[in-house]
Specification:
The chain is built from 24 helices and no strands.
Length: about 700
């Protein structure tokens, strides 16, 4: 009953001519309808995505559109009244302008008559005398004409003033028409925006009545599990690198092949588990496609169809990876069997040889042969191995000499540092030299080459980033942002901390950061702030190629608005809840805080029922990729704030990479291996003593 009574009151008020009161009444009704939805959603997590929530939202939107249509009617009436007033003012102005023209013409005619009458008085006075009746009559006529002329002057002044006032009234009426047109267009745009929201809400409601959300959650869980397995595979590979440091002939020795087989077995297990998750993700994508078809949502159908194709491609790649690992395991198993049989045969030969030496009385001759076989040859082999290692080092270090401009003393120091580093971390001198060569090519100064290489190797062993790729990408990032080269450790620590604390990987953050570097540096973001934004963007599923360019455009738009002012600055300030001067000052002092204020403002407006899409369109952000990136930022504005805090803290502390690398290096001890030449050498003194004793006896 109260609803009906209130609607009746509103309907009656809309029939009055009190336009301002009518519009206020409509706006209050809209605010009341939207507050009911917020009340229903309060305290219910994910309410807006449930069937009940979407139904409530649809009802709210329909109510809002009905009231907005009433507002359009009021604005149409206001425009009609303004046009009528303008026409009235224009008609009156035209009438008074003509009257002023006529009055001025009459004034000029009277002025001519006065001059003629004055001339006649002078003639009569000179010829007839002042007392003559003709002179007296001429003077009386002159006086009458002067009186009439003075009256015409006053009439012209009055009409000129009235005409000026009417011109101002006409201009005011024209301004009122323009304002009414703007208000009407805005009201019609609001109706269209609400209609679009109703369409989307209907589509979402149809989707909610299907299995779309459940399938989406299944896909997200599978992706998270796949990412975890990927990190575990990277960890296993880093352990393998650490465990096999110092092992010569890795692909032919028993120890190296055994370690490799262990790694491949663990890798195969993780790949199989990943494969199962890829299958779950594909099933979820197909389920979403089915749900989209049931909801008859063209956009969701296209999106789900793309997801199915991507999932099938990823599954095929996963199957290929499993098949490749199986093939490697079989090959390694065969090589290991061959190596073991060679060791067994060698041991049996030595044992038989010793027995024969004891049985036969050719002690000295046999001893000489044994010395040649078990001492001289291994020593020569050891020397050859040392020479080969030295040659290998010099070969890889040649790359450093090609790209680094240094003195011989500096090259000697770099070589010594490379060799020392290879004994401390899970990397060979060849890998370290390769990173140094890349660093020299990209302009890293000689003073920082060793620290740079250590940081990149630690990243390669602790994250999903390949050391040489990290060297190339992070050096480019530093060059673009003009970063101090002593801060690569801070850069690596921030990457690791963000990768550990948010739903993304270090490689994704690194790629996104490189895309954001130029625009971020241009507007005044620090390196840590750029990394924080990159982590947030990659955490909400935005690819580097799309999100990097779109986010950069948004930053540049804000910078241009802050620098040039005008309507663009007013728009950004309005959304951010600031004055134009306040937003400009904030952007100039802290661009990251200004962007955060903007997306927080968009989020707040969205919660208050103002369409974020419509707002972005109003301020000239209509490009699909740019708008999609900003909308994802709006939906995750708290995430953007947290990534900024974590990035700045990690940059200042500069410990995350060191701790992570320390954990990786501590998980696997360096194995102690005994080479066949060493075993053979240690057995020779006992054999020689026995042979000598027998020879003496």
């Amino acid at each position: 009953m109260s609803e009906t009574l209130r609607d009746l009151v509103v309907s009656l008020s809309l029939q009055t001519d009190n336009f301002t009161r009518n519009i206020k009444s409509v706006n209050k009704q809209i605010a009341e309808a939207e507050s009911k939805f917020r009340l229903a959603a309060a305290g219910v997590e994910g309410f807006e995505r449930t069937t009940t929530g979407l139904s409530t939202q649809l009802s709210t939107l329909q109510r809002r559109m009905s009231l907005q249509q009433q507002a359009v009617t009021q604005y149409e009436r206001a425009l009609a009244a303004a046009n009528s007033k303008l026409q009235e003012c224009y008609s009156r102005q035209t009438d008074y302008a003509q009257r002023l023209t006529d009055a001025r013409a009459a004034q000029e005619a009277l002025k001519t008559q006065v001059a003629a009458a004055a001339q006649q008085v002078r003639v009569f006075s000179a010829t007839l005398g002042d007392s003559d009746s003709a002179t007296i009559a001429a003077r009386a006529n002159l006086d009458a004409l002067k009186t009439e002329y003075r009256a015409s002057v006053q009439e012209v002044k009055k009409l000129a003033g009235q005409n000026t006032a009417l011109q101002k009234s006409t201009q005011s009426a024209a301004d009122a028409v323009s304002t009414a047109n703007v208000n009407l267009n805005n009201a019609r745009a609001a109706v269209r925006s609400t209609q679009a929201e109703i369409t989307r809400c209907n589509q979402s409601l149809r989707l909610a009545q299907t299995n779309w959300d459940a399938a989406g959650r299944s896909i997200d869980e599978s992706r998270a599990a796949i990412a975890t397995f990927g990190k575990q595979i990277a960890l296993a590979e880093s352990r393998f690198k650490l465990a096999t440091v110092g092992i010569k002939e890795l692909d032919t020795s028993v120890t190296g092949l055994a370690a490799k087989q262990t790694l491949l077995t663990e890798k195969l297990d993780l790949q199989r588990r990943s494969l199962a998750q890829y299958e779950v993700a594909l099933a979820g994508a197909k389920e979403q496609l089915k749900a989209a078809q049931q909801a008859n949502d063209p956009e969701k159908i296209r999106q789900a169809n793309d997801a199915v194709i991507d999932a099938e491609t990823a599954l095929n790649r996963a199957k290929t990876a499993v098949a490749t690992t199986r093939s490697e395991i079989e090959k390694t198993h065969q090589l290991l069997a061959t190596a073991k049989s060679a060791w067994t045969a060698a041991g049996k030969s030595l044992e038989d040889f010793g027995k024969k030496c004891d049985a036969v009385g050719r002690g000295l001759t046999t001893a000489g042969r044994a010395l040649t076989t078990t001492v001289t040859t291994p020593v020569l082999a050891l020397g050859a191995t040392a020479i080969k290692a030295s040659l290998d080092f010099e070969s890889t270090f040649t790359s450093v000499r090609k790209t680094v401009d240094a003195t011989e003393a500096e090259f000697d120091a770099l070589a010594a540092s490379s060799k020392a580093m290879s004994t401390q971390i899970a990397a060979s001198t060849g890998e370290i030299n390769e990173v140094m060569a890349t660093a020299g090519q990209l302009g890293i100064r000689n003073d920082y080459l060793v620290d740079f290489a250590r940081t990149m190797i630690d990243l390669g062993n602790s994250t999903d980033i390949v050391a040489n790729e990290a060297a190339s990408t992070l050096a480019k990032f530093a060059n673009i942002t003009n970063m101090d080269q002593s801060l690569f450790g801070n850069l690596g620590a921030t990457l690791v901390d963000l990768g550990n604390k948010f739903a993304t990987t270090e490689s994704s953050i690194m790629e996104m950061s490189l895309r954001l570097a130029a625009a971020g540096h241009q507007v005044g973001l620090s390196e840590a702030q750029i990394l924080g934004f990159a982590a947030a963007l990659s955490s909400v599923g935005i690819e580097a190629e799309m999100g990097g360019s779109a986010f950069s455009k948004a930053l540049v738009k804000m910078e241009v608005a802050a620098a040039t002012g005008g309507e663009a600055l007013e728009d950004f300030a309005r959304v951010s809840g600031l004055t134009a001067e306040g937003f400009k000052a904030l952007f100039e002092s802290d661009p990251a805080a200004a962007f955060q204020a903007f997306i927080t403002g968009l989020s707040r407006m969205d919660e208050e029922g103002v369409s974020a899409i419509a707002t972005l369109n109003d301020i000239g952000i209509a490009e699909v990729r740019l708008r999609d990136t900003l909308l994802r930022a709006v939906n995750a504005n708290e995430l953007f704030a947290r990534t900024q805090d974590v990035a700045i803290s990690a940059w200042q502390e500069n410990t995350a990479l060191t701790e992570e690398a320390g954990k990786r290096y501590a998980t696997t001890e360096r194995p102690r291996f005994s080479s066949p030449s060493r075993s053979a050498t240690t057995s020779i003194p006992r054999f020689s003593a026995s042979s000598t004793a027998r020879a003496t006896s």
